[in-house]
Design brief:
The complex is a heterotetramer of chains A (about 325), B (about 300), C (about 500) and D (about 350). Chain B is α/β, with parallel strands linked by helices and about 300 residues long. In chain B, the strands form 3 sheets. Chain B has a 5-stranded parallel β-sheet with strand order 2-1-3-4-5, with helices on both faces. A 4-stranded parallel β-sheet of chain B has the order 7-6-8-9, sandwiched between helices. A two-stranded antiparallel ribbon of chain B has the order 10-11. Chain D has one domain: ABC transporter involved in vitamin B12 uptake, BtuC. In chain D, helix 2 crosses helix 3, helix 3 crosses helix 11 and helix 7 packs across helix 8. The chains are: A mainly alpha (about 325), B alpha/beta (about 300), C alpha/beta (about 500), D mainly alpha (about 350). Chains A and D meet through helix 5, helix 11 and helix 13 of A and strand 1, helix 6, helix 11 and helix 13 of D. Bound molecules: adenosine-5'-triphosphate (2 copies) and magnesium ion (2 copies). The site of one magnesium ion has 4 residues of chain C, from helix 1.
Chain lengths: ~325, ~300, ~500, ~350
């Protein structure tokens, strides 16, 4: 009963959307890469790097949106590296991804130190404010939940239908899916596999960049070391959980956020005395369980993990 | 017994976290001050993983640093083992256990006194009678503060209820912020920001916050009333003196972090100097004096807060 | 010389893969209305040449003129743009997409959206011009091989191909489907298109082409006009270095029953379900299984080799009933198996040849003891088998995938026959093989028969079935709807059964 | 397409030697740029880096000690990846191994001589069990192994901190660390005043042993066959799920031993931060070694040199420590590119033009 009263609060749902936002960005980004046949394990490092770059951009220009732009470019840089490694050079996607994460997270901290030194109080920016959509925000209950959020939250929930539309209703989306299923088929239909995968990875990087930007510029107002804290890895899990579908992946992100928001409230309410780590691991355990239930019908893009070299067979 | 240090001594610090971590930062700041004012040589390593901790300590010891300091969240025993192998080097580490002969001295962030005082302020300032603590994890150092904060509040306001949340890591400000928001939404209106991220939530939600470890008023002058500050300077100054004089022995330097020695205090009120009700100010000042006089002792409870 | 500009003129094409000279100074001309047959042994360079033309490979030297103007073909998009379409030896279809999606790939959209109406309209045109039809909303994975073939051709025509390349398109078509395809090709030629048709089946080449180009070791060695003056034998001789002699089938009387299936049923779903399959095969007998691809032959082979667990039914091998039908069990009971897909089921192309050769028998005492491999024995055995079956490869350590199709098939035969199986299950054993290699396989099947073994031969090549089998059964939609001794079998009655028309009806 | 990659018929030996060296050189030059950016002298910095990893007994033994968990996790990943069981979970398996070892090592009821062998056994078993679970989900329910192994790392980490925070908390320090193991359970050290412990020896024995299993036994044969083509292996009578489970077990066992080594040889207790991501680095090591168990040794040593060396270098020169991660990442990338050219060559491809003498 008390749990119910915790959930049925405006703030709970608002928190849910906020927590889900970086996950949605990461998940949708990863989705583009995987639908094109590339597992981007670089996501954790790329999100970290763009969180840092975006924050620095905003810090020095005092323009948040400029910071977002920098974050997006930084994310695309990460996508580009992945593309060079596992598209142009056809290297193993696992290693390219782990290498990218290693390199980009190292680089984030390194550059952060170079730029900001070792200050005794961490540099902060004035973060994004929530955008209150006039009239709509006044609607009781759903108003404050849906229409009083950060601009990037709106964007996150916007890119889900847009992505779905792109994937299933545009020529480019079809080419992308074909590249991820059967690169030979795409190639012989005149679609450049390499170019498509490059584009997919760049778009993926862009969204990962937005995820990073959200964390260091909206949800928090500084870049610190734990700012990503595994959210990239979780995004990878959510793509599989969502069976490579944008809407289902979003549902996964929302479920994950639901559990996280709930555990924060249960902890605070002192209602149940179990180790707080149990709450922390709940999202992970539930994701594994849910996957065990749905996986039998799930099917990864057939060409996932396979490099494509034109003249090889 | 460590030998007499000739002239300029060399100090190294080994920190497990990045230098931004609030506790580590206080040690670091004090050592920087020692470099400037006492003319010691000072180098440090940040972000030294537990797995590398011993190696880095040994490296400094091998290189002839006379004093090695550092934090030790999970590296306590590692540090002790290394110290045993270098009896001529002085080691001073944050620790919950006592010193170890001949050369392993300890300190701790005994800042429960100012934390208690800020708890009293929180107890007076809350309107909902719900106050909160968002902390990293339930380890003794943190429990001590959480409990002192809550006890201070309860002393002045019997109706106060305390809520505690742990985020499970030392660094995850977005999560700390969400945890704080969760508390605020359940009615908390004064919150103790043990970790980064909490003050931002308080500011956004227009409630009051108590900072931690350093003076963080600048982050949100209207939100942050005050907060306990840990000052490692007295400790550092004393230890450096001992090492310089060649009379260093393994001791518990924890006492130097008490208010009485100037090792901890309540952060300046800044803007709140004028906003805080005079009665509250007077009450805090009185209790502070009693602590300094030794007539009031803040109870130390290191069990996980309930 | 013809007066009209040739549709295609390839001159001096060279293509090397490392040290392999796949194409050397190749010239090829196609004029409008021509159907060119491209003939050559496995590995002669036919596919490579076509891949160069289609932009999949970039030639090392040479020039390509399309419709009289020099063309630069860097990729398939260029080729499609120039009106060259290609149906690959292995289909390039996305099996989890719909027919519509497969047709739309690489097509520009309208208003940024997929342009379905355009495809519908083009499909209408293609239907009226060439008589090819397709249901747009089917999933490719539900289509039969013949339908997938058709889809590939439509895909090419849809792009306005004026020159169509078909690389071994009939390898798994039924005679009727092949005839349908030939009608379409003739219709194209009649409309002044050019067609390049690759096949190992001489009768097809003879039936449909106007001119035959013969390749050998990467070079064009002969060009023959296809008319009454040329004979099959001539073509075969131009193509191969050694003489082709059709194997003779000695008479033999069936002995005791070696294999028996009773009431085999399997679950349906994406694959056709087998219903109540009963079969017996006797010593000294080859049983042919005919049927249009996708009517349960693959499933039958999978059940027999233990890869598909039947819902009900039993299997006897050499008089003993199998408790569980698993790969291990059927092997142990003396069933040798040549799977339909040698590259993906039979062999592991990335492993050394020697590993593939002992893959099913690695636990035998001869090859390993207490879990430790006897590598000497393995290599020795591989060498012996390579010698015995004339496998042409540099040695037992060579990567299996680098062998040609014919040699891969020999490896499989060598592996399975080494154990002296009492029954051999051979599924499509000559698919894609050139005449010489196919001959080699046939000889071995017949040898088993004379040795008093039993063979189950599943094939879509009626000619092959008629030449080798003692009895034929026909499969249609998962049931055996006809059985007859070979003496009674004709292309007509078997063809009707394959189409599902039983005599009673 | 102007430049294209062409597969080599054979790789000359000198390339196999030269290319990794070139890769290292490229890494040093690229990261040298960052060192200069940080205001230090590149040559001094590198001199410090290599000397502090290699130049003294202390440095050398520390490098070997550092390489030990990397060898174990590298081998673990090698075996799993060979079977195409994408085990990203060596990290979690290391943790369970470490926990088991720390638990057994602190049991007073056991005779002293039995502690070390039992710790090894328990750690190996715990690691194996941890890896078998996701492998079972994969073979039985087709659950994506990349995701389950990855997520399990978090679950295990939280479970471990919950234990350390609760029932298993060291009663003396009150920190979320486990109590110390008994002194009889501490691994013997081979060289006085160093930390060259039993685990180091085991790691260096382990690599050839794993090589033997992979190349010379039926289990290795089956693992490779199933990994390369599970369908074909099944057709030939191999039980693919059993083979995958077996490879997962061996993989987890090795990762578990990495944890045992850290507990028995270095820390004598478990804490939440016992592994700075050795499980993930193991993936990198395994791939650098091109999934060859013997190659794991040089790859792990190379990484150990970078980690210890770059660490000391950054301390000596004031370059931010995070350079060590950057060097590792860069080294991985350049090494991958370098190794690729042992299999491929870059060839200038003329786009077809007219042949003059037609
Ligand atoms: N991508 C490739 N890499 C390396 N070698 C190749 C490649 N493609 C073809 N070859 C080689 O080029 C030669 C010609 O092969 P190709 O496939 O063109 O023969 P083909 O005439 O089509 O044979 P088949 O009748 O069996 O289809 C062969 O020796 C083949 O091994
Ligand atoms: N990937 C490859 N790399 C190098 N050489 C190859 C490769 N693939 C094939 N070859 C070479 O090609 C030769 C013949 O192989 P290929 O597969 O082209 O034969 P094929 O006759 O075309 O078979 P199929 O009937 O399958 O078309 C082999 O002997 C080998 O030397
Ligand atoms: Mg071929
Ligand atoms: Mg071919």
């Amino acid at each position: 009963m008390e749990i119910l009263s915790q959930i049925l609060q405006v703030g709970f749902f608002a928190a849910l959307l906020r927590i889900a936002t970086p996950l949605i960005f990461g998940t949708i980004g990863e989705l583009y890469a995987e639908r094109a046949g590339v597992l981007n394990l670089g996501i954790e490092g790329i999100m970290m790097f763009s969180a840092m770059a975006g924050f620095s951009g905003a810090y020095f220009t005092h323009s948040l949106w400029f910071g977002v732009l920098v974050a997006v470019l930084a994310g695309m840089l990460g996508g580009l590296l992945m593309a060079v490694l596992c598209v142009s050079l056809g290297l193993s996607q696992h290693v390219s991804g782990i290498g990218t994460t290693l390199l980009f997270s190292g680089l984030s901290f390194f550059l952060y130190r170079l730029i900001f030194g070792q200050p005794s109080t961490i540099p902060v920016i004035e973060p994004f404010r929530t955008v209150n959509i006039p009239w709509l925000a006044k609607i009781p209950i759903i108003g404050p939940v849906l229409f009083d959020q950060y601009a990037l939250v709106y964007l996150a929930f916007l890119i889900v239908p847009v992505t779905s539309w792109i994937l299933y209703h545009t020529p480019w989306g079809l080419n992308l899916r074909t590249v991820g299923e059967n690169p030979q088929a795409a190639n012989s239909a005149g679609v450049s596999v390499a170019a498509t995968r490059y584009q997919a990875l760049l778009i993926a990087g862009m969204f990962m960049g937005l995820g990073g930007a959200f964390l260091s510029m909206a949800q928090y107002n500084a870049f610190t070391f734990g700012v990503i804290s595994g959210r990239g890895w979780i995004s990878i899990a959510l793509v599989v959980f969502g069976q490579w579908s944008p809407y289902k992946s979003m549902a996964g992100a929302l479920l994950f956020a639901f559990i996280d928001a709930l555990q924060l409230r249960l902890q605070a309410s002192n209602m149940i005395h179990i180790p707080y780590q149990v709450f922390l691991m709940m999202p992970f355990v539930l994701t594994i369980l849910a996957m065990a239930l749905v996986s039998r019908n799930a099917r990864a893009p057939a060409a996932l993990l396979r490099p494509f070299r034109k003249e090889e067979r | 017994q460590p030998a007499m240090a000739a002239g300029n001594i060399k100090i190294a610090a080994v920190f497990e976290t990045p230098i931004e971590e609030p506790w580590v930062n206080q040690i670091h700041v004090a050592l920087l001050k020692a470099k400037k004012e006492l003319g010691v040589e000072y180098t440090w390593s940040e972000s030294v993983k537990a797995a590398d901790f011993a190696r880095v300590m040994r490296e400094y010891a091998e290189k002839g640093y006379q004093l090695i300091m550092g934090d030790s969240f999970g590296t306590e025993k590692i540090a002790r083992r290394v110290a045993r192998d270098y009896p001529k080097t002085a080691f001073v580490f944050g620790s919950g256990i006592g010193p170890a002969e001949p050369n392993f001295g300890v300190f701790d962030n005994w800042i429960q006194e100012p934390t208690y005082l800020s708890g009293m302020i929180a107890g007076k300032m809350t309107k909902s009678n719900k106050i909160g603590v968002v902390a990293a994890m339930a380890i003794p150092e943190i429990n001590r503060l959480s409990n002192a904060f809550c006890a201070g509040a309860k002393e002045v306001n019997k109706a106060v209820k305390c809520q505690f949340s742990f985020i499970g890591s030392f660094f995850d400000p977005p999560k700390a912020k969400e945890a704080a928001i969760a508390q605020i939404e359940s009615g908390v209106d004064v919150i103790y920001a043990e970790r980064f991220g909490v003050i931002e939530a308080a500011k956004e939600k227009n409630i009051l916050a108590i900072s931690n470890m350093s003076d963080q008023s600048s982050l949100a002058p209207d939100t942050v009333i005050t907060g306990p500050v840990w000052d490692m300077w007295p400790t550092v100054k004393y230890v450096v003196g001992l090492v310089k004089a060649g009379v260093y022995t393994a001791q518990d330097f924890g006492g130097f972090s008490y208010m009485g020695k100037g090792g901890s205090y309540l952060a300046p009120l800044h803007k709140w100097d004028s906003k805080l009700p005079a009665a509250v100010k007077a009450m805090v000042a009185k209790r502070k004096q009693e602590i300094l006089d030794g007539t009031f002792r803040v109870d130390i409870s290191e069990s996980a807060p309930q | 010389m013809t007066t009209t500009a040739p549709l295609l003129q390839m001159r001096g094409i060279c293509k090397y893969f490392g040290s392999v000279r796949a194409n050397e100074e190749v010239d090829l001309t196609v004029t409008p209305g021509e159907i060119i047959g491209l003939l050559g042994e496995n590995g002669a360079g036919k596919t490579t040449l076509m891949n160069v033309l289609f932009g999949v490979y970039t030639a090392d030297a040479g020039q390509i003129d399309i419709a009289g103007t020099p063309a630069t073909i860097r990729n398939a998009a260029d080729a499609l743009h120039l009106g060259v379409g290609m149906v690959h030896q292995h289909f390039h279809l996305v099996s989890h997409h719909s027919v519509m999606e497969n047709l739309l790939v690489g097509q520009p959209g309208r208003w940024g959206q997929l342009d379905r109406p355009y495809i519908e309209q083009r499909l209408q045109e293609i239907r009226s011009r060439f008589g090819l039809e397709m249901n747009l909303d089917d999933q490719v994975r539900d289509l039969s091989i013949g339908q997938q073939q058709r889809l590939e051709i439509i895909k090419a025509l849809l792009r306005g191909a004026r020159l169509l390349i078909l690389d071994e398109p009939t390898a798994s078509l039924t005679p009727q489907e092949a005839d349908g395809l030939f009608d379409a090709l003739r219709a194209m030629a009649a409309q002044q298109m050019g067609v390049i048709f690759i096949s190992h089946k001489l009768h097809e080449i003879r039936a449909v082409t106007t001119r035959v180009v013969i390749m050998r070791y990467g070079r064009v060695t002969a060009t023959v006009v296809n008319d009454d003056s040329t004979t099959n034998r001539q073509l075969a001789e131009l193509m191969c270095e050694h003489e082709i002699v059709a194997p003779v089938k000695a008479s033999s009387t069936p002995g005791r029953e070696l294999l028996r299936l009773v009431g085999i049923c399997t679950a349906g779903g994406l694959r056709p379900a087998l219903q109540d399959i009963d079969l017996q095969v006797h010593a000294g007998e080859i049983l042919g299984v005919a049927g249009v691809s996708g009517n349960g032959q693959t499933e039958l082979a999978d059940v027999m080799s233990g890869m598909l667990t039947p819902l009900s039914g039993q299997m006897w091998l050499d008089g003993q009933v199998l408790r569980k039908i698993t790969p291990r069990q059927v092997q142990r009971q003396g069933l040798g198996r040549i799977p339909e897909d040698r590259m993906h089921t039979g062999l592991i192309t990335t492993l050394p040849l020697s590993s593939c050769m002992v893959l099913p028998r690695i636990h035998e005492h001869r090859f390993s003891r207490f879990g430790v491999l006897n590598r000497k024995a393995i290599r020795q055995f591989t060498k012996e088998q390579m010698q015995a079956f004339d496998v042409r490869a540099s040695g037992p350590d060579v990567r299996t995938g680098t062998l040609s199709g014919g040699n891969l098939q020999k490896v499989l035969l060598a592996r399975e026959l080494a154990w002296d199986p009492t029954v051999l299950l051979a599924a499509q054993p000559t698919r894609g093989l050139d005449i010489a290699a196919a001959q080699f396989v046939h000889e071995h099947l017949l040898r088993l028969r004379t040795e008093g073994k039993a063979v189950v031969l599943i094939s879509e090549d009626l000619e092959e079935l008629f030449a080798l089998s003692d009895r034929i059964v026909v499969m249609y939609e998962g049931v055996i709807n006809g059985r007859m001794p070979i003496a009674e079998a004709t292309v007509q009655n078997v063809g009707l059964l394959m189409a599902g028309i039983t005599e009673a009806a | 397409m102007r430049w294209r990659l062409e597969i080599r018929d054979a790789t000359p030996l000198w390339l196999n030697v030269l290319l990794p060296l070139l890769a290292i050189l490229a890494t040093l030059i690229l990261c040298g740029g960052l060192i200069v950016l940080a205001g230090a002298n590149m040559f001094d910095a590198y001199a410090t880096m290599f000397s502090s990893a290699l130049s003294s007994k202390f440095a050398l033994t520390e490098t070997l000690v550092k390489a030990t968990p990397l060898i174990f996790t590298g081998l673990a990943v090698t075996i799993a990846f060979k079977a195409k069981f994408w085990n990203i979970g060596a990290e979690g398996q290391l943790l369970t191994g470490a926990m088991a070892a720390a638990y057994v090592g602190a049991l007073e009821a056991l005779p002293g001589w039995s502690l070390i062998p039992l710790m090894l056994l328990a750690g190996a078993a715990a690691g194996a069990a941890t890896a078998i679970f996701p492998a079972y989900l994969k073979t039985r329910y087709k659950v994506d192994d990349v995701v389950t192994t990855l997520l399990l790392n978090f679950v295990i980490l939280y479970a471990m901190t919950a234990l350390l925070d609760g029932v298993w908390k060291d009663p003396i320090s009150g920190y979320p660390d486990s109590p110390d193991i008994l002194s009889a359970a501490e691994f013997p050290v081979f060289l006085a005043r160093t930390r060259l412990h039993l685990g180091v020896l085991l790691a260096f024995i382990g690599a050839p042993l794993v090589w033997f299993v992979m190349k010379r036994t039926t289990l290795g044969f089956a693992i490779e066959a199933v990994g390369e083509n599970a369908h074909a292996a099944a057709f030939s009578g191999h039980k693919t799920s059993v083979v995958i489970l077996a490879s997962a077990a061996v993989s987890g066992l090795l990762a578990g031993l990495a944890g045992v080594g850290e507990v028995g040889g270095l820390h004598f207790q478990v804490m939440a931060t016992i592994s700075p991501g050795y499980g993930y680095t193991g993936i990198v090591i395994a791939m650098l070694a091109r999934l060859n168990p013997l190659g794991v040794l040089p790859a792990a040593l190379f990484f150990a040199v970078i980690i210890t060396g770059a660490d000391s270098m950054s301390r000596a020169t004031g370059v931010p420590v995070f350079l060590a991660d950057v060097i590792q990442g860069t080294a991985l990338v350049t090494m991958l590119i370098g190794l690729m050219f042992t299999r491929y060559r870059l060839r200038w491809q003329r786009v077809v033009h007219s042949v003059q003498e037609m």
